[in-house]
Amino acid sequence: MTSQPFDLATIRRALVAGWRLANATRGVSIAYALIFVAGGVAIMGILLNRGWAPFIIPAAGAFMLVGPAILAGFFGIAEAHEAGRPLGFGAVADGYRQASRALWALALVCGLLFMIFVTDAAILYAYMVGGTPVWLGDILPPGDGIARFVKWSVVSGAVVAFLLFCVSAFAVPLLCERRAGLVEAVVSSVRVVFGNFLFSIFWAFFLSTAVIASILVLPLLPLTLPWLAYASRALYRAALPR
Question: Looking at the DSSP assignment, which residues form a beta bridge with residue 134?
Fold first, then answer.
């Protein structure tokens, strides 16, 4: 599979295209994103209720490990819009139905890495923060234990997220459009990432920063999630044109 190099200009065009598509499909895109907002509200509520406020930051970052699995729904919306079909949750379901079954194998890998990271973060939390409840008002300014926990959980999460980004950034779109099998999709994704390493790192950093910030300020997530999903689709099509 032939790939094309991309740069900051390509990323900018992808972001513009993603924003336009998110606006054109605003209703269903926001409704689909609200499913994950509801999940975020529930998780944050549990953490705050139990006095685990510092765990909110790694929990927000952990979304990046399962995020690739939700792209098929946005791809279904985009395909329906481009084909002039009705936009609704039927389009979301079509995105999953049309995707290769290998996508579920990759989603399982995402879930496994998510569990590994959450387990590691929980161990770090137990050692560095302990069992004393920490409420939202106690984390600013952070104590030494909280600061060390956030620092090392971010480092641990960044390593895991980078590995997953290499494997899934372009593999998930390929599987959503059935352009490759699992092995070819993963190999192609890794090649594109390392063939455009600096710009891929920038893109990964931009995605993670925007998503984590939006999760911490949850009302932003229904707007940023569709935008970044469609921008990822545009960048994929620039890097791996048909």
Answer: 52
User: Which pLDDT tens digit goes with each residue over 147-176?
Assistant: 788 787 888 878 888 888 999 999 999 999
User: Phi then psi for 52, rounded to 5 degrees?
Assistant: -110, 45
Question: Residues 200, 201, 204, 207: is their CA dihedral positive or negative?
Answer: negative
Residue 189 CA to residue 1 CA, distance in Å, equals 10
CA 228 to CA 154: how far, in whole Å?
21
First-to-final CA distance of the chain: 9
- Cα distance between residue 197 and residue 24, in whole Å: 32
Question: Cis peptide before 5, with omega less than 30 degrees from 0?
Answer: no
Cβ of 151: how many Cβ atoms within 10 Å?
13
- What's the CA gap between 107 and 56, in Å, rounded? 23
Structure tokens at 170: 């372009």
Give this prediction's pTM: 0.88
Residue 76 structure tokens? 């279904």
**What's the full length of the chain, in residues?**
242
DSSP string, 82-108: HHTPPPSHHHHHHHHHHS-THHHHHHH
| Structural domain boundaries in the chain | 8-239
Closest CA to 229 of 184, 166, 172: 172
Chain segment 91-118, per-residue pLDDT in tens: 999 999 999 989 988 888 888 888 888 8
